[in-house]
Amino acid sequence: MSGRGRARGRARGAPTSQPEPARRPGETGAVPPPAGRGRARGRRPPPTDPAEAGAPAEPPMQQMAEMSMAAAAAAPSRPRQERTREGQGQREPRERRRRDDNDYDPVRTRPANRENKRGEAGQPVEIVANYFALRTLPEWRVYQYNVQYNPDIISRGMRRGMLREHEKATLGRTIAFDGMILYLPKRLPSDVTTLTSIRTSDQEPIQITVTLTNELPPSSPQCLQMFNVIFRRVLAKIGMQQIQRHYFSATASDTTRIEAHKLEIWPGFATSILQYETRVMLCADVAHKVLRTETVLDVLSSLYRANKATFRETAMKKLVGTVVMTRYDLSVCV
After folding, report:
1. Looking at the chain, which runs of residues are DSSP E strands?
2. What mean pLDDT is predicted for residues 103-127?
C-alpha cells in the first residue's frame, strides 16, 4: 500500500476539528453537535431531557380535537342551497325533483311521431309473436301493505303462517307476501289493521299490524315484479322444475333422451312480464335444458378404467369448471 493511501486512511479515521461558530452577546457556549456524515446526516440529535427521552412521541389528539371543535363553532352557518334550474333563478320544487315510485318508462317500439307501424307499400303479411296481453279490469289497482309483528318474528315461514290464519276473515284468499311486504287486489276497510295470532310454541299472543303504504297501477315496477312472481308460482304448480332462473318440464312424456350421446333434453319456458307501450304483456320464449344422463361417478369410473396412471390429471381436466346438477333438489354447482 502506498503512503498516500495510508495517509488517506488516517485522515478518514481521525476526528475532524470544527471551527467554533460565532456567538452573539449573551449566548451560552453550548454548541450544537456537528452534522453527521453519510447515513447519520439529517438525523435528529438525541434529546437531553430525561423525561422527553423516556416518553414515546404521541400525536396531540386532544389539542387537535379542541381546535376542530372551536373552528366549527366559530364558522358561520350557511343556509342550505337548493338546486336551481339551469338558466333560471327559481328554485325547483322538492316534489318535482323526487322520482315517483310508480314512474316507469315503458318499452317504446315505434317512433313518437307515428301512430302505427304499418307500411304503405307491399303485400300484408300475417305474423305471430310470442307476446300475450294481460287483461286487467279498468281502474284496477294493487294495494301494498307493510306488515309488522310485535314481538318480532324472525322466521319467514312463521310470518306467513300467522298471516294466512286471517285470509278467510280479513285478507282474502288472493295474497302475495314476502315476509314484510303484502300485496292485495282489494283495499282493506282501514288503512291500519291490527290482527292477533297465537304462537304455538309458547302460546304467546302476537300482534300483527298491517299498514297501507301505496296503491300500485298495473304498469308500476312493483306490480310487474309481483306479476312475474305469481306467474313463476303457476309454472311450479303445474309440475315444472326451476333450474336457475327458468322452468322446465322433467316428466318422461315431455323429455327427449339421446342414448347414443347419453343426453337428455328438457323443454321449458323463459318468461318475462313487462309494460309495452300501453299494455302489460307476457313474453314466453321456448327454452331447453340439455343434461347428461351419466353421473360424475360414472365419468370417474370410466376414466379410472381407461388409464390408472394418469387418472388424477385426466379427471381434473375433465371435470374442473363443469356445471353439475343434483337430481334430488335440482341445485346447480360449478
Report:
1. 131-133, 142-150, 176-177, 181-184, 192-199, 204-216, 241-243, 246-248, 256-258, 263-276, 279-292, 324-325, 332-333
2. 75
Pair type for strands 256-258 and 332-333? unpaired
Q: Over 80: is that where the pLDDT of 43 sits?
A: no
Backbone angles phi, psi at 158, to 5 degrees: -70, -35
Residue 224 Cα distances to 134, 142, 221, angstroms: 11, 11, 5
Tell me how far apart the alpha carbons of residues 231 and 274 are, in angstroms, rounded to a whole number: 12
Higher pLDDT, 229 or 145: 145
Interaxial angle between packed helices 311-319 and 296-306, expressed in degrees from 0 to 180 and rounded to the nearest 10: 150
Cα dihedral 123→124→127→132 (10° resolution): 160
CA 5 to chain centre: 74
Residue with the three cell numbers 485522515? 11
Burial class (CB in 10 A: 0-12, 13-18, 19+), 252: exposed
Phi, psi of 298 (to 5 degrees): -65, -40
Q: What is the largest CA-CA distance in the chain?
A: 116
Residue of 303, 299, 302, 291 whose CA lies nearest to 327: 291
Cis, bond preceding 151 (omega within 30 deg of 0): yes
* Of 95-109, 120-134, 143-157, 260-274, minimum mean pLDDT range: 95-109
Span of 14-23, 93-102, 128-137, 241-250 with lowest mean pLDDT = 93-102
Contacts of 329 (CB under 8 A, 6+ apart): none
* Beta-bridge partners for 333: 324
